[in-house]
Every structure is written in structure tokens, then in C-alpha cells.
Design goal:
The strands form 2 sheets. The protein has a 6-stranded antiparallel β-sheet. Strands 1-2 form a two-stranded antiparallel ribbon. The N and C termini lie far apart (about 50 Å). The protein is of the alpha+beta class and about 220 residues long. It contains 8 helices and 8 strands, in the order αααββαααββαβββαβ.
Length: about 220
């Protein structure tokens, strides 16, 4: 049981439970997120429970202990800081950075993480709009942020994040020249298929599916 494997499990449990009504991450949901067998997940959760990093109950799932949550937040902090570095300093596109940051997040040096944070001037959000925990583990979330789908007709919103950070979806947004900071005006929502019509920079009208609209996070202006 190496440290990288432990960190991946803790981060997965955090992602599945933080800000959710679900208190315990199920074995099946962890297995799906980590692309592994449920039997392997059960074995790992039992070991993490013995180490005091999770609280695991058979048939109910696992939740993080305080120590486990602290570790997972630190991993997420490193991951999102590296994503900022890759985009802002090395010129990577936002659909190219996740896998690289997955490797960098396992570097153990806290001093390196703190220096990286300072070098980047303490960013609050990563290139996908996700909040970056600070050194104390505090997470600043977007205020008054809603899904684009819920933006009222005639209202203007600014893209501040995405719910789906998959490479395919990010490339889809780039194709339509949509990114963080893009201004969007809601023109119409159609009852037939719940698709929407929006106005984007350049006074261009664009149609988006309901699925796409639900995965774009905006702050209403």
C-alpha cells in the first residue's frame, strides 16, 4: 500500500462526499472513479480504516476522518496549484493539464507547495474554476454561482467554472470560444428539449444542449 495509492483513494472519497448530501462514498462509486474492482476497494478501505484515515462500514461505504480529510485537501491544493502553473507559466491549454497535475500532486515537499503558491501569487481558483484550498485548508467557493441552465432569460452571466472538467467537454467549450471570464447573455430556453440559445462575445448567437448548459457555472452580473 504505497502513499500514492492512499492519496488517490482519499481524494476520491473527498470528491464523492464533499459538498454532497452523501455522507459515505460507496464501494462501487469509488471503484468507478478509480477504474478498479470493488473487491480491491473493499480491501483498501479496510486498511485505511485501520490507519485511522477513513471510517468504513460494510455495505454503507466510507467517509474521511479529520486526518484523512486534511491529507486529501492538501493533495487537491497541490493538484490545482500545478494546474495554474501549467496554464499560466508553461502555456498548456486547460484540457491538457489534468493528467500532468495528477503526477505532480504526489510530490511530498510542503515547502515546494508553499513556494509554488507564493510564486503564483496565491491564486484562489484553478483554470477550471475550482477553488484552491489555502495552506490552512480553507476553501473559498464562488458566491452566487449557478449553472448556466438556470440563468434567467435576458440575464448576463460570466463563466467562473465547469462541473465537467473532462478533456472532451473542455475542447467542446474551446471550439465555441468559451472559457473562464466569457460573458454570456441568456436569450431563450426551449421547452421541447431544454436546449438554450445564448449570446456570446462578438454578438454571436450559440445553441447549447441542456447537458452542456448544466455543466457551465456562471456568476450572474
Amino acid at each position: 500500500m504505497n502513499s500514492q495509492s492512499i492519496e488517490n483513494y482519499l481524494k476520491a472519497i473527498f470528491s464523492l462526499t464533499e459538498g454532497s448530501s452523501v455522507k459515505e462514498a460507496s464501494t462501487s462509486s469509488i471503484a468507478e472513479m478509480l477504474d478498479t474492482k470493488s473487491s480491491s476497494v473493499t480491501d483498501m478501505l479496510q486498511k485505511l480504516d485501520k490507519k485511522g484515515l477513513v471510517s468504513y462500514q460494510k455495505y454503507k461505504g466510507a467517509c474521511l476522518t479529520k486526518e484523512g480529510r486534511d491529507i486529501s485537501i492538501n493533495i487537491i491544493r497541490k493538484h490545482r496549484l500545478w494546474e495554474v502553473f501549467l496554464v499560466e507559466k508553461l502555456g498548456f491549454k486547460w484540457d491538457q493539464i489534468h493528467d500532468i497535475a495528477e503526477q505532480m500532486e504526489h510530490i511530498q515537499s510542503n515547502e515546494l507547495t508553499d513556494r509554488l503558491d507564493k510564486f503564483l501569487e496565491f491564486p484562489k481558483f484553478d483554470p477550471h474554476g475550482d477553488p484552491i484550498p489555502d495552506k490552512e485548508g480553507n476553501i473559498k467557493k464562488h458566491t452566487s454561482a449557478i449553472d448556466l441552465f438556470d440563468l434567467k432569460k435576458g440575464s448576463i452571466g460570466v463563466i467562473v467554472g465547469v462541473n465537467d472538467s473532462s478533456d472532451d467537454f473542455l475542447r467542446y467549450l474551446e471550439k465555441h470560444e468559451l472559457g473562464l471570464g466569457s460573458n454570456i447573455t441568456m436569450i431563450e430556453r426551449f421547452d421541447f428539449d431544454h436546449s438554450i440559445s445564448i449570446r456570446v462575445p462578438g454578438n454571436t448567437t450559440l445553441s447549447l444542449s441542456a447537458q452542456a448548459a448544466r455543466n457551465i457555472i456562471v456568476r450572474e452580473e
